[in-house]
What does this fold into?
Amino acid sequence: MTAFLIRRIAQMVIVILLSSVVSYALLNIAPGGPLTFLREMNNSGRTRVTAEDIARIKARFELDLDLHIRFSRWLIGVPDGPLVIGGQTYFADWVVGCKIPGQVRLRYPDGTTEIIEEGCALPLTLQDLVDGPPRRDSRGILFGDFGLSQAILRDRPITVLIESRLPYTLALMGASTLLSILIGVPIGVYSAVRQYSRFDYTMTTVAFLGASLPTFFVGIMAILVFAIGAKGAGLPYLPPGDASAARDYVVPWLGKITKESPLDYLLHFIMPCGILVFTSVAGWSRFVRASMLDVMKQDYVRTARAKGVRERIVILKHALRNALIPFITLLAGTLPGLFAGAIITETIFNWPGMGRLLIDALGRFDYTVAMAVLYVTIVLTMIGYLLSDVLYTLVDPRIRLN
Amino acid sequence: MATSPLLSVEHLEVQFKTQDGIVRAVNDVSFHVDRGETLGIVGESGSGKSVTAMSLMRLIPNPPGKIAGGRVMFDGEDLLQLSEPSMRHIRGNRIAMIFQDPMTSLNPVLTIGRQITESLELHLKLSHREARRRAVELLQMVGIPSADRRLDDYPHQFSGGMRQRVMIAMGLSCNPELLIADEPTTALDVTIQAQILELIKRLQQELGTAVIIITHDLGVVAGMADRVQVMYAGRIVEEGLTSEIFAQPRMPYTIGLLRSIPRLDDEQGRKLNPIRGLPPDLINLPQICPFSPRCDYFQAGQCDAQVPPLRDVAPDHRAACLFDITLQTPVTAGDPVSA
It folds into this structure.
């Protein structure tokens, strides 16, 4: 077991590093960025943005650094300046980026001109990292320092941002995942036991609806019906978005709802949670149904029946225990979701959770925030699968970790 | 027959609904088992032997399976008419069953002890501790070394032969009057087979249990059974004392089976005589002798005109053939009756 854990944790570190490289690279290679609109402004010729302005903005987003230097600073916090050993400075003029790129003016035959960047007019050295305006240094995300937000909460620690968003996502994802499992597993078991019954067909249809209708469609329809429609018809309605109201409001039958009261939170919670349950119950119940059907055909279930065991006990004790073994893998998959949240649902319902934080970060080119969310998701995914391997040994005596 | 038999099956019909039509897996099967006796049921795959056994326990999955007719009289009661709770009281308690593949017949996530004590607690109402003590005795009885320590082991920690011993211990735990062994040795290798059969035989003599042993291995039947019945296409085609069936088979199918067995004392170079053709499709079974398409003694106009009934061909020996065929009847296309 110990040897297994050591080996797995070593593997996890490698996978985390590799996936950090890939996601960091993808995020930075993707077109667009905070400088796009500046260049457009410049090219339109109305406002002159000086090279120094651009350099300042670049420095703010760390974009003046080479990609691999930026990555290393984000991951492990180095280099944060020249190497100083015993009062002596080394590598002070090692070029790590470019403050102001060289410009080439292109004149086309039709008279239009375009400025493109070519080469580097003013390189950035390690010494400049210390000398220039203060930078967003972090000790590296590997050592638990997420660094500072670049755009959303300018220069505030990302941990503050996450702390303010995480409770909402934990509540929404935790409740909806738990509910989905509590509803989905019994439905799956019953569908398997009564395969091809009316119940099974009904649940299969509902499950397919839930699984195939996109969240944004179901979400918007729900808002239309339960918020706008119900309110218009004078029926009790649900608030269409946010986690709590900004001011008191009145709902028919329920009366006046005080803002930020428990009832207010509950009303805001119902729709996003319901949508998530509706769309994910399908997956759980179908999985359990398939797994149960497989197990119910096994010889040992027949043996249990031949022993004269009550059908209920056959299903719950002999079949379900075996059917839930593969279920653990699925359970492990929910762990990163608890943190990362539901991007689409949170966006539709304006839910101030982690999913929307990621969308906001991407929209405003807050690379450090986006990477922080992605990184934690990666780590949690790995932890989830490690946990599922350990859980397997608890529920399946055939599996030993060695 | 002085006393009534322990089990008597009368005109049993079992059908399975499939997409292609209704499969008539068991057709008009009647037989009986006396107390303490061993009955062998032989036949090739798909001949209905396992389905017959499962029907006795009412373990045919429904749907698609259905017991369409007949009676299963067990100690004076028709099992097919019993309520589900009363039937549960019979299963594992008065009739026990052991299955073909011991590798898959035990629940992988429950300990051996738990699986044995389950029926003890259920049927004999033993306390947990008593049941465990009894389980140790049972494991010792079937020859599992250091039984008390192995009680908390899981099935995967046992070899195939040991698992089948566990299955037998489980089957015999409540002292059943009837033990149905559905191909108990098919999945085991030959030396283990002999041990398991020896074990079943010994325990049967000690406990006086009646046994139905289902197999496609004629050797198993020869060594175990008092009486044999041969099944083909869901029907019993021959039935009699084991010695009689092996010495004087009267149904061409049985004769074919016996001829297709290799023998150690055979002269060198003798060719085996397999039965040609394939068993019939049980969906569209015409009202003819089901074996007639493969039969060496086929008589046009007679074999393809009716289903031959089981008839007495000798004392305690019945066969479903219209003609008096024996091992000595020459295999010719001619008329066996006049030949």
Remarks:
- The CA atoms of residues 81 and 128 of chain A lie 8 Å apart.
- Residues 158-193 of chain A form the longest helix (36 residues).
- Chain A touches chain B at residues 298-300, 302-311, 317-318, 321-322, 325, 395-398 (CB under 8 Å).
